[in-house]
# Entry
Amino acid sequence: MRKVAVVTDSSANLPAEIIERYSIIVVPLLLHLEGRTYRDGVDLTADEVYAYMRAHANGTLPTTATPSPDAFLQAYAAAGRLAPQIVSIHVSSRLSGTYQTAVLASRLVDVPVHVVDSRRAAMACGFMVMAAARAAAEGADVAEVLAVIEDARKRSNFLMGLDQLYYLHRGGRVPAIAAIAGAALRLAPILHMTDQGEVHIVAVTRTRRGMINRIIELLEKRLGGTPAYIAVSHADALEDAQRVQEEVCRRVRCLESWITSFTPVMGAHAGPGLIGISYCLEPRYAGA
# Structure
C-alpha cells in the first residue's frame, strides 16, 4: 500500500492516461449553463461548451463555481482507501475558491489531508500533481511528496494566448476599457503566472498567428535549451494545438509532450480559441 494518495481538481487539465496511470483522484469544478449545473469533464465535454460559447457570444455565457465541500469529502474518502495520508493540490487561490473549500473539507475527515495552493493553473498545476503522484507511486512519504511539489512549482509555468479580451471582460476579469481597446485593435494578449499565483499579461500581439509565434519565442527564451515537459492546451483549436506541439518539439528539448483540451471551467473566462503552453523544467534544472 502506498503511503500517500494524490487529489487535485479538474482545472489541472491532466491527460486521462496520467490520471489513470497514477490513480489520481480528480474533483470536478462546476459549470452553470442555462439554469443547469454540470460537473467539469463529467457531465459536459469541453467541445460542447466551446461550441455553445461560439454560438451564444452575445447572449448568456457559462458561469463557473467551486466544488462543494461534499465533493471533496467524497474524494478524500476514496483517497483514504488508497493510502493513510492525502496530498490535495489545487488551482491558485488567487483565481478560485477551490483551495479554501478543500481546506474546509480537510478538517472534516479523519485521514490526514495536506492541502496545497499550487499558485499555478492548468497544466502548470498539473505538472505539480504529476510529480507528486509519481513520487507517491515510488513509495515516497508525505514530507517527501510535499518537497517534490514545491520543487515542481519552481520549475513550472504557462504561456497562454487569447484571441481577444471579450470573454475576460464579460466575466469581469479585466476593466471594460481594456476589453474595448482589445476589440478595437484586435489585440491578442499572452498571459503567464506570477510567483504569487496571479495571472498577468506578459506580451500583446495584434494577430492570432503573431500570438502563437510569440508564445513559442517566449518559451524558447525561458527554457534556454533546458529539457522540459511540455503540454499544449487549446480551447476548441485542436489543429492549431497540433501545429504548435510539432513546432515546439522541433525548437526545444521536449522530454515528453501532451495536447490537452483546456478545461471549460477556465475556458469560460478565456473564451474559445485559446492556445497555451505549460512547461516544467527537468528536475536537475530546478534553479534555472
Observations:
- The mean pLDDT is 90.
